Amino acid sequence: MITDYYIYLDPVDTSTFDEVFSNSGKLGGIVELYSKTDAFPDVKGANVAILGVPEGHGSDKNQGCGSAPDVIRSQLYNLYNFTEDLKIVDVGNIKQCNSLKDTYFAVKEVVSYFIANKVFVIILGGSNDIAYANYWAYQKLNQLVNFTCFDSCLDIGDASCCPAQAYISKIIMHKPNYLFNYVNIGYQTYLNNSNIVKLIDNLLFDAYRLGLVRNNIEEVEPSIRNSDVASFDISVVKSSDAPARVDASPNGLSSDEFCNLARYVGTSDKISSAGFYEYNPSLDRDFQTAKLIAQAIWCLIDGHNDRLNEYPYHNKNNFIKYHVKSEMFEKEIVFYKSKLTNRWWLEVECPEHLKDKYASCYLVPCSYKDYLSACDNEIPGRWLQVYKKLM
After folding, report:
1. Cα separations in angstroms, 169 against 100, 172, 218, 262, 278
2. Which end of the chain is more exposed for a tag (fewer CB within 10 A), N or C?
3. What is the pLDDT of residue 361?
4. Backbone phi, psi, residue 196, to 5°
């Protein structure tokens, strides 16, 4: 593990938004920022690290998104501080590299350092193919990854074309592969090839249509809770709320739904990094999109501050255990319900050859709806999907 990750970083030029640091009641008053006037922050004991990646060459249709990080900062640090319990550091921007491959490598090195040291990383992109480098950081740590993206498109295609439109393909095809599950939240059917949607299903991955998310946003929370990485493409938000993207759509999530999902990311005890991508400042109106991204990050950090380290195997006294018998399966399905948050988990027993890897059972976040399905003698979809993967 490298210790000199900072060689990949440049200080932030705060000359255009210096005023946000003058009010101690705002985030700008507490964040420890690496700038042209301030030394590199002491990251020891940090809870959250913010990293800018001013790289937009991976998105040939959205040129301009590379200038996003500092514009987002100008709006984020102008928001009021909600707690002094968290130590937030901003380690600056990834240096301009000669190629996308070099940028990916630099991001991987920096992110892997922080997640290895239990510091939550927030990436300010940049094009959404930077999420590939984020995934790569976990591979460097030799651990399985559950990857969730919020995007109107599935971004699976010919890996030789525009990286931002095919980076999921690179993640799936990369060798060695540590991807256990991929989840897309908010895709729009008419923007995606039906063969790609079928492929997602055949690979035992998850894709939640926009309509399903909007009708029952709580039902996607368990998939978010089970993730390690979250990637937000601003295209998932409708253009009236987030206009600053070349292919912004009139349909999409609302601004409050976007922030709600960001808070789910923050409250997940498992997620250790998140990125915000494809914001193009040149297309923004009165910083409306930058303000939305800043508020979503605020909600994410607020959720992180409320984490409970809640896991059924950690403290069983905080959970109610349910055993549900099913005629569809010879063994009963075990559920756990938290007394603290009313959140649910279910167990999937592992095959013998995987018991050392997953401890005997793979614990899957689920919903009350999954419990009711089991009680109605139906095998919950989340249980069945994981069972097939483990087989």
Report:
1. 16, 5, 28, 24, 18
2. C
3. 64
4. -70, -40
pLDDT-based confidence at residue 1 (cuts at 50, 70, 90): very low
Edge-first strand order for the sheet with 329-338 is: 319-326, 329-338, 344-349, 361-366
Contacts of 195 (CB under 8 A, 6+ apart): none
Helix (H, G, I), strand (E, B) or coil at 276: strand
Residue type, 357: K
CA 71 to chain centroid, in Å, comes to 20
Across 100-104, 112-116, 156-160, least confident range: 156-160
Q: What's the pTM value of the predicted model, to 2 decimals?
A: 0.94
3-state secondary structure 92-110: EEECCCCCHHHHHHHHHHH
CB 111 within 8 A of CB 121: yes
| Superfamily covering domain 5-305 | Ureohydrolase domain (3.40.800.10)
Cβ density class 17-42: b for 16+ within 10 Å, e for less: beebbeeeebbbebbbbbbeeeeebe
Q: What is residue 338's three-state secondary structure?
A: strand
At 46 the pLDDT is: 96
Strands, DSSP E only, in 242-372?
Answer: 273-277, 319-326, 329-338, 344-349, 361-366
Tokens for 21? 């640091």
Give CA–CA dist 319/334, Å, rounded: 12
The DSSP secondary structure of 145-208, one letter per residue, reads: EEEEEE-SS---S-TTS-GGGTHHHHHHH-SS--EEEEEEEEE-GGGS-HHHHHHHHHTT-EEE
Give first-to-last CA distance, the chain, whole Å.
33
User: Are 381 and 348 contacting, i.e. CB atoms less than 8 angstroms apart?
Assistant: no
On the question of pLDDT at 360 being above 60, the answer is no
Predicted confidence at residue 356, as pLDDT, reads: 58
What count of other Cβ atoms lies within 10 Å of the Cβ of residue 65?
31
Q: Where in the chain is the domain with CATH 3.40.800.10?
A: 5-305
* 254-307 per-position pLDDT tens digit: 999 999 999 999 999 999 999 999 999 999 999 999 999 999 999 999 999 999
Residue 228 half-sphere exposure toward CB, CA atoms < 13 A: 23
DSSP secondary structure code for residue 352 in this structure: G
